[in-house]
Amino acid sequence: MKAEKEAFSWASAAFAAPLLLILAVLIHSGVQGVNITSLETLIRGTVGGEALLSVRYSSTSLDPPVIKWQLKRDKPVTVVQSIGTEIIGNLRPEYRDRILVFENGTLLLHNLRLSDEGTYEVEISITDDTFTGEGSIDLTVDEPISKPHVHMVTSTVLELTENFTLNCTHDTGTKTTYSWAKGGLPLLNETRLLLSANQKVLTITRVQVVDEDVYSCMVENPISSMRSLPIKLTVYSVRRLKMPALDILRILFLANRHQHVKHAPPLAAALQATAAHYLLHPTRLSLRLAPLADTLAPPPNPHRTIAGGGDTVRAHQPPPRPAAESPVESHSPHLQPGSLRIHPPLHKNPEAPQKYRY
Q1: Residue 61 pLDDT
Q2: Containing structural domain, residue 58
Q3: pLDDT tens digits, residue range 296-307?
Q4: What is the reported pTM?
Q5: Is the distance from CB of 207 to CB of 160 less than 8 angstroms?
Q6: Position 98 in a domain
Q7: With b meaning 16 or more CB within 10 Å and e meaning fewer, what string describes 128-143?
Q8: CA–CA dist 37, 28 (Å, integer)
């Protein structure tokens, strides 16, 4: 009995060995039939440029391959089908005059669009082969970044100003990332210097003299990077201004109050620039805000008197202006700091009380 079992086992092994060999040959020949390889699995393209989705295949058959490219979406989009280099059927409207298929299965896309971005899947089959070769390539399409600029309401600012912002702006560019430099060194989030979530906006929560420096921003994406021209921020110390403390507080109050109000940033810039002029004119100057009266709310009371610190300030209601000089221009975002005019002292006698008209 034992001898019969051993004989049966040897007979089974002898019969199975050729079958396994035949199966291995078939599998091996199938893989060799259509085997796709790609040189790159990630291609980065530029809007308006070209993208070469390069593949090649090997097969034991001499018949022309059937090539099919699809763009992976929720529902796959057929880009092109061809037998060799001859395209089968009609191309979709968005691909007409933009597609070229090579003999080895490579796909060339002309005049790239942002909508071309995605994963491209290729299938190559040949009639004599059992298995179909498959592969995929990821394509990204981006728009180059234009030259960025650092935008500030004003390049001169008073110490203790609150929430002073620097904005990194540019016209074109996709998938952008931002970074900042102060004095040529990378700038990170600090206690007072805060970056927005996308790092496009830099906010100085409370300006100090040490913030006076050169600032620039860098914008990058997968295909390009650009740095802005450096811009100097000048900080004037309150302690250096030869003017009454009450006047400084008034200017800071108005500047901070109107920093983020609609149409008011030009007013804040004007106040900052006016305060800076005190360095050059160390005398008590009067500030006439009539040209910008329409940016203030509510309008000043002509009979209200403000007293404090030994100074008296009487609110001044400007006289009606001719139609040709309507203050509507003050709503313009291009209002210049010069709109806030500086006037000489109202009294030449330094001992006499001085009045400031707002």
Answers
A1: 80
A2: 34-142
A3: 444 455 444 433
A4: 0.60
A5: yes
A6: yes
A7: ebeeebebebebbbbb
A8: 17
Whether residue 111 is contained in a domain is answered as yes
Strand order in the sheet with 311-314: 305-308, 311-314, 355-356
Whether 117 is covered by a domain: the verdict is yes
pLDDT tier for residue 131 given thresholds of 50, 70 and 90: confident
Domain count, the chain: 1
How far is the C-alpha of 37 from the C-alpha of 64, rounded, in Å? Answer: 18
b/e sequence 82-118, b meaning 16+ C-beta within 10 Å = beeeeeeeebeeebeebbebbeebbbebeebeeebbe
Q: Hey, which residues does 58 pair with through a beta bridge? A: 35
Residue-level pLDDT at 11: 46
Calculate ∠ Cα 108-112-115, nearest 5°: 115
State CA 70 to chain mean position distance: 31
Look up the CATH number of the domain holding residue 38. 2.60.40.10
For the chain, helix, strand, coil in percent to 5 are 25, 35, 40
Quick one: pLDDT at residue 186? 94
Does 327 map to a domain? no
